[in-house]
Design goal:
The structure is a homodimer of 381-residue chains. Chain A has 12 helices and 16 strands. By secondary structure, chain A is α/β, with parallel strands linked by helices. In chain A, the strands form 4 sheets. In chain A, strands 6-5-4-7-11 form a 5-stranded mixed β-sheet, sandwiched between helices. In chain A, strands 14-13-12-15-16 form a 5-stranded mixed β-sheet. At the A-B interface, α1 and α9 of A face α1 and α9 of B. The structure holds a DNA duplex (30 and 30 nucleotides).
DNA sequence: CGCTTATGTTCTCGTTGAGAACATAACAAG
DNA sequence: CTTGTTATGTTCTCAACGAGAACATAAGCG
């Protein structure tokens, strides 16, 4: 590490602070935050302004003292595109430094990988010189960020390199549940947590381990298939090829199955919503299905807490409904699955706050993560 | 980050390189390794030598070129004490920079926390001014590095602060299985792995997730109780208070139980060894017990691989025997538990190479980790 | 014995962030 | 309206850092 690296290092820290700040940072505030002098901050910011990365505007004066400036994303600075590709639809948004986001376009698709050509055309329509990176969330495991394995779409080992044209911008592709967790860690309820878990419950369960605000990816970037651990003692065979998976007992497929329906992917989601509504209206049969789901959910969470010791566990998707309707049952089942000595300090189980667009938010963050690095900044300056 | 920090930063990198090197590093080699100039290396090393952290001795000349020096631990430099505290015995060793280790003393104990006074006396006997930190491995979960919960010793919530005298040196306490994993990651078969798992199989299973060579501890430093996840569908109640734990089907207790014995802690270990020998001698009943253990082990590993996507999984303790006797069964069960699309690239399952003293080795590493930091070095210089 | 090779040593240089002194723009109090 | 207070911006000096070049040195090789 040389002394030239030092400058870049501090500039990345500064950019990261600007990006992560909840409210726009002032230059003086940033200096305090990073523990650097006002003079140094001026120099660093000046260089970043000249590189069109941040833009200084006079700040509203607040109390005494000489007015300072606000550090805002530069109007002609880099942009990140965020994509959320689901089973039958996709959404394209642009995200500025700092997280401000605007949806650009969205569409449906025919459940073939042909959708990527469509998406590529959309990206191309909105592409400008400002585009620096693309983050893409996809509902399924993606090995090495390239090979899609989405059983229920019949995508066996779809190679993204075959479908993303040669002139695609720099792109990082990741699993949607993982990115939803990343979103909670960066801009949601897991903010500041050193060790946390997030689970997105839809047809089945996907999730991620979050350490110091970063989503763990594993060796082949396919970590997070917590739903495919046999945590609930079910003997059923799972679509994934294994047996007894947790997802067989939690999620909309499990709800449908519990009511004697035939679980599928796509149709199951609306059915599950119906079951939820029936349960809220007091239907006993639907209520029992929800009960079973909640118990299985809690059971699995307890087991995972034993292994990974998170300080908090956040849920999204159907998990939020389950938490609203059956928090006590979930917590009780979780406590039962915890080792006895841990039961007096169980992990908090909390509803995610980022909302429906969590994968999109996470995709944007993942995109920015590829940019807010020393190597990127070094060539940009 | 200031420019003075830069010097310390590079010096820590240098020390770390010296500590981690398999064979003693030469000064020129270290410069190449860190990507710094020979002049800079000379300055850094000179300062470290003056601080009695490394010692330069002329290196054997190897081929052409001006002879260089070897970077060795300084004869009056800091030392780390490593402790391994088991159910009925303890071992104290001293470890030098670079990993060289010498056992100083060991003893039995009466299964009460009184052992810590004994150990403290031993530490005091060997303590010199060179002692910089102590790493301690304990066979059980330790919340916040302080509160011991070891059910089978009847230690419910033993507070180490009550048993480690006021004048104890700076100490880091950690779980033995986790430290065994750390040892494999630093000086064993997991060296260089970005994402790996290690499991120590004894009475039950403990383990750790290793990311970039560091053992993950969780929010309360009690992560790693993988053995207390219900991965095998057992309905039995576990001593830990939960139900269906993996450890009920894997480990020496499980072996004993499979043969109709009454599992206990302590006695079970020898019984398990007997069973192993009988199985090796062709005893069918013992063989079946081993079969069951192997199948349950593999089943759990597959599930965990789905969730955490390790590039390798190493085993120690009884795991090494199981791997020797039933590798195929373990791998087959693991594959069955893997999601189908992952079966063509399963995680490697490998025997640990650090051996019996892995917890001690890991304890030493953990001790050194508290020292090889910028803050420690800053005040040392 | 001279050539090659790898390393140690010395010196200069550009860059970095710290720190102090001063300038400036708001507010507050009389 | 003036003066003092406060927080920040700006400028300049300075010590320290690592890079790089030039040179010195100690080995092996032919």
């Amino acid at each position: 590490m040389t002394s030239a690296d030092l400058r870049v290092h501090n500039q990345v820290r500064l950019l990261r602070a600007v990006h992560d700040a909840e409210a726009p940072l002032t230059r003086a505030g940033a200096a305090r935050l990073l523990g650097i002098g006002r003079n140094t901050a001026a120099a660093l910011v000046g260089e970043l302004e000249r590189a069109h990365l941040v833009h200084e505007v006079p700040a509203e004066t607040a109390g005494r003292g000489r007015p300072t400036t606000l550090l805002l994303p530069h109007p002609s600075g880099p942009l990140v595109f965020a994509l959320d590709v689901r089973e039958d639809s996709w959404t394209l948004a642009r995200a500025e430094l700092g997280g401000a986001r605007e949806v650009l376009e969205s569409g449906g698709h025919d459940r073939t990988p042909g959708v990527f050509a469509e998406i590529g055309a959309a990206v191309e329509r909105h592409r400008t010189g400002r585009l620096a990176a693309v983050g893409m969330a996809i509902a399924g495991p993606i090995r090495d960020g390239r090979l899609l394995h989405i059983a229920h779409l019949g995508w066996d080992e779809v190679d993204l390199d075959d479908h993303l044209g040669r002139d695609w911008p720099r792109t990082v592709v990741d699993n949607d549940a993982r990115l939803a967790g990343l979103a909670e860690a960066r801009r949601g309820v897991l903010h500041g947590a050193g060790c946390a878990l997030h689970f997105h419950i839809d047809f089945d369960i996907g999730g991620t381990l979050l350490l110091d605000g970063d989503a763990q990816r594993g060796a082949h970037r396919i970590a997070g298939e917590f739903g495919h651990m046999p945590l609930t003692g079910s003997g059923l065979e799972c679509m994934c090829g294994a047996r007894g998976c947790w997802s067989l007992d939690v999620g909309s497929n499990a709800l449908v199955r519990h009511l004697g329906g035939k679980p599928g992917y796509g149709t199951g989601r609306e059915l599950a919503q119906q079951i939820l509504r029936r349960a809220e209206d007091g239907d006993a049969e639907a209520g029992a299905a929800i009960d079973a789901n909640a118990a299985a959910l809690g059971r699995g969470l307890g087991a995972l807490a034993n292994a990974l010791d998170p300080e908090a566990i956040s849920l999204s998707g159907l998990g939020i409904d389950l938490l609203r309707l059956r928090r006590d049952a979930i917590e009780a089942a979780c406590a039962e699955g915890l080792m006895a000595f841990r039961r007096n300090t169980p992990p908090q189980i909390i509803a995610g706050t980022v909302g429906e667009q969590a994968p999109l938010t996470g995709a944007a963050e993942a995109g920015w993560d590829t940019i807010l690095t020393e190597t990127w900044l070094r060539e940009r300056l």
